[in-house]
Amino acid sequence: MSVSTLIVAAGRGVRAAGSNPLIPKQYLPIGGVPMLTRAISAFAGHPSVDEITVVIHPDDVEFYENAAKHFVARLRPPAHGGAHRQQSVRAGLEALAANPPTHVLIHDAARPFVDAELISRVVGNLDSHVGALPCLPVTDTLMMGRGRRAAGTLPREDLWRAQTPQGFRFDAILAAHRAAAKDGGTFTDDAGIAQWYGLDVALVEGSEANRKLTSAEDIANADELLRLRAQSALGTQRVATGYDVHAFGPGDAVILCGVRIPHHKKLVGHSDADVGMHALTDALLGSIADGDIGVHFPPSDARWRGAASELFLKDAMARLKARGGEIVHVDVTFICEGPRIGPHREAMRAKLAECLGLDVAEISIKATTNEGLGFIGRGEGIAAMATATVRLP
Ligand code: MG
Question: Which contiguous run of DSSP H or E holds residue 89?
Fold first, then answer.
């Protein structure tokens, strides 16, 4: 079985033109992605679909190229459609006829929420039927009206709401379309043409999500839904800062972000006085509003005398993890006249990456002097600032 997909995108979309009359609706973005791109993507990612052809309006070449740019490897050149859907499908089928597949799925670009399960159900029925039509039962009561008066309820048991993609044996649906074009019949979908031509079309379970976006309101609602979904997947993003200072005392090295740097002084503190890790620990604690380093590791507690500061940093990381959080990025800035930070930058990034379980690309180390001003300028100590960007559920 070779399966081609024909996506019909040649309409002018006049019913939806309210929001942006210059762009046909199938090219309007929903959730930041053109509607047609979403439809192409669903088929391009399906293992049963060999290739895709989009039927477009000749004026829309630029819109099409933008919408299709990431899928060129799976797409045949676009076919040019006619004034009505039926003519557009026929034009698409004729374009495929030179190198025909065994089966074709015909889909409306205005249904961007088609999913892999639905495509599989349609394809799965093409072994035993000439055609397969996804549809849903009618659940609303169908009332006949005479003028503005109720005039009787219609039975709905045998009525179905037809969707796309509709699947067919290629030669059969091409013959049906050619016959319909010759005999002048007008149909709103391909299952209608197939049934009129006498083909066996199976009814397959459709999907409520696979609705057709017709009005400007439909498109606005779909856009809103996708934006809300994207936001809830991301969760809450927070940015927090930390700051620390340690004074110099007599010594021969400082420890900054876990890296020992030979220097003619050391930093004085209760722990190893790693001013960079302290600032970063406070930034992480700030991101979950969980106090600061002094709350969790009071300098009055003898246990932390001379402690390696990665202990504090890992504790803050564990607290963030316990809330289901993850770090997006951290940024540490040293403010000092010396030692020079640049030669040790990569070692510090590697050390923080190891402590926090991050990629080094997510860790920034920077440094600046204080231009000789103030206590830092006089070489009395080092200050550090840190920013942590985290994501929480
Ligand atoms: Mg400190």
Answer: helix 85-97
Please report the beta strands in 47-156, taking only residues with DSSP state E, as ranges in sequence order. 51-56, 79-80, 103-108, 131-137, 142-146, 149-154
**pLDDT tens across 354-383, in order?**
999 999 999 999 999 999 999 999 999 999
Q: Strand 160-162 relative to strand 79-80: parallel, antiparallel, unpaired?
A: unpaired
Q: Which CATH superfamily is domain 3-232 in?
A: Spore Coat Polysaccharide Biosynthesis Protein SpsA; Chain A (3.90.550.10)
CA–CA separation, 308 and 125 (whole Å): 66
Three-state SS letters, 337-352: CCCCCHHHHHHHHHHH
Residue 306 CA, ligand 1 centroid: distance in Å: 12
Contacts 24+ apart (CB under 8 A), 296-299: 297/271, 299/270
Contact between 365 and 257 (Cβ < 8 Å): yes
Choose which CATH entry (3.40.50.2300, 3.30.1330.50, 3.20.20.100, 3.40.30.20) describes domain 235-392: 3.30.1330.50
pLDDT tier at 218, thresholds 50, 70, 90: very high
CA 247 to centroid of ligand 1, rounded, Å: 10
In the chain, the largest separation of any two C-alpha atoms, in whole Å, equals 100
The count of C-alpha atoms lying within 13 angstroms of the C-alpha of 373, restricted to the half-sphere facing its C-beta, is 3
Q: 114 CA distance to ligand 1 centroid (A)?
A: 56
Separation of CA 358 and ligand 1 centre (Å): 23
pLDDT tens digit string along 293-344? 999 998 888 888 888 999 999 999 999 988 888 899 999 999 999 999 999 9
Token pair for residue 295?
A: 């709350």
Q: What is the pTM assigned to this prediction?
A: 0.64
Ligand 1 center from residue 249 Cα (angstroms):
14
